[in-house]
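ARCHIVE CARD
CATEGORY: sequence design from structure
SOURCE FIELD: tokenized fold
FIELD CONTENT:
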């Protein structure tokens, strides 16, 4: 665990020493403010439903750009080989990198906490729904980061890794809309089960469904396993 913690601190230092974290924070908060204003003005509800729904789509495009440097940049810079020969367990390397990106996501989400308090000042929001919505969004972040890390492990081009992460995630988001166009019942059910939006619905309604939590956990673990296999295969090339 001490090795994973050291990697976590190193990755967080890299984020905040470079302009990367500040650019992401600025863009994210700008979009969050825009979505908050449009959601409240268009619906007249004291709710973050519109803002959080749009932020989940935004994170699907932003987070692969955040994780694209995890392995691709190190392979291009030639430090990947040094990292692989160091006495560092692979699980600790993956855990440190994944947790650092998830921590940055938590910081991004914390930056939007002003909006619920604005709703409380001017209206009467349901804090239970707000809490579960943020939980669902954080689970989304964990899944998106894992998929982005897998994409980054496949190439030594950071931009290609970022685009690849979006390509991996996009079908899981579009599956929900595609299900409505399919007439075959078993295929429609399968698409709905695979869709990220399906598993976010209960959180937005204020319900924590165990099956949805398990789905996000399995999605995250699956792509972390794919990342582990991809990095492990590169070690022996």
């Amino acid at each position: 665990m001490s090795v994973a913690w050291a990697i976590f601190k190193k990755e967080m230092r890299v984020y905040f020493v470079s302009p990367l974290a500040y650019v992401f924070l600025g863009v994210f908060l700008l979009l969050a403010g825009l979505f908050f204003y449009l959601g409240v003005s268009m619906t007249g509800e004291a709710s973050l439903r519109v803002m959080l729904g749009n932020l989940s789509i935004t994170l699907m495009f932003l987070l692969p750009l955040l994780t694209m440097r995890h392995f691709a940049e190190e392979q291009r810079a030639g430090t990947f080989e040094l990292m692989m020969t160091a006495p560092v367990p692979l699980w600790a390397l993956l855990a440190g990198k994944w947790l650092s990106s998830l921590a940055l996501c938590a910081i991004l989400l914390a930056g939007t906490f002003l909006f619920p308090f604005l709703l409380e000042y001017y209206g009467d929001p349901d804090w239970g729904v707000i809490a579960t919505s943020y939980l669902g969004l954080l689970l989304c972040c964990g899944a998106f980061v894992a998929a982005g890390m897998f994409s980054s492990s496949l190439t030594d081009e950071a931009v290609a890794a970022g685009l690849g992460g979006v390509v991996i995630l996009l079908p899981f988001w579009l599956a929900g809309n595609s299900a409505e166009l399919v007439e075959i019942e078993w295929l429609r059910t399968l698409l709905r089960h695979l869709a990220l939006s399906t598993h976010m619905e209960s959180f937005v309604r204020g319900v924590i469904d165990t099956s949805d939590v398990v789905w996000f956990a399995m999605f995250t673990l699956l792509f972390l396993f794919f990342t582990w296999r991809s990095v492990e295969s590169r070690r022996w090339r």
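CARD ANNOTATION: The longest helix spans residues 127-152. The chain has a mean pLDDT of 83.
SHELF: design records, drawer C
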